[in-house]
Amino acid sequence: MPLTDLPLAELRAFRPDVAEPADFDAFWRGTLAESRALAAAPEFSAAATPIGELIVEDLLFSGFGGERIRGWITRPRRSGRLPVVIEYIGYGGGRGTPGERLRWAASGYVHVLMDTRGQGAGWGTGGDTPDPHGSDSATPGYMTRGISRREDYYYRRVFTDAVLLVDAVRALPYADSSRIGVTGGSQGGGISIAAAALHPGIAAAMPDVPFLCHFRRSVALTPENPFREIERYLSVHRDRVDQVFHTLSYFDGVNFARRITRPALFSVGLMDDIVLPSSVFAAYNSLATEDASIEVYEFNGHEGGGFSHWLRQAAWLAERL
Q1: Cα distances (angstroms) measured from residue 2 to each of 5, 203, 299
Q2: Where do the catalytic residues lie (predicted)?
Q3: What residue numbers bound the domain in which 150 lies?
Q4: Residue 64 and residue 80: Cα distance in Å, rounded?
Q5: Residue 40 lies inside a defined structural domain of this protein
Q6: pLDDT digit string (tens) for 242-260?
Q7: N or C: which end of the chain has fewer CB within 10 A?
Q8: Residue 217 belongs to some domain of the structure
Q9: Residue 1 belongs to a domain
Q10: Looking at residue 117, which CATH number applies to its domain?
Q11: Annotated binding site for substrate: which residue ranges?
């Protein structure tokens, strides 16, 4: 796979004019307030797993509209309040089976993995959280569900789930609420950007090859799915172009990045044909924090830095939490 986008020097200076609605903050304040008013206390119980050196728990918490969302908690067997890493999952994946992801817990963190509503059948070992909301006409996938109205758009529910998970984690008796980091790859990276912008209790963000940024450019130029779902939708609904991109402006990672004031570590693969490097840099270059860095993997695609990048994340996070 050749380089898919601009030269690195241009990417580092790339600051596009991404549309931001005037009521962006009001929209998200209202959205979160409505769901918080319906939230119940989180529930957690022992998970069935042969793993004995770590504690693995089944988590149930209130997300968008008070709807119950599942997750896994994996943590060390020691007392006291520990730092937390919340992880969001890539497109099409689910939380899987308990004990699949052990790195953060084995490194001394409480690791909380959020199931993504309605997903879990695209790869991995499945998901357990339904999305009980319908949609008007949409292409296969999740990108165009409810896209004609910001109130109905699929990612309004997902981003709200992600933020309210932080509320739930802060209530856990073994979590240090002052030391919460968020991370995720691809879709999970995009969700982590939104969560870090919308929840003041997040201390650090580590979006890995983040998806859902600079929708206008990404839909026009990305050669592979999932952004092409929106392209196909608009090829049929020719009269909805302005309406669709107005909806998407409330969910664009660039607009969320402008509101992130906490430390942030990004990653990007310059041969990525699923998430354009320019869309990652559009968000990264918009951050409001001075403590920001980006790891560039020149000859990698959407896999980014793999385990090597996790080692970089672990070292970076240890200095901040």
Answers
A1: 9, 36, 8
A2: 186, 272, 302
A3: 8-320
A4: 30
A5: yes
A6: 999 999 999 999 999 999 9
A7: N
A8: yes
A9: no
A10: 3.40.50.1820
A11: 91
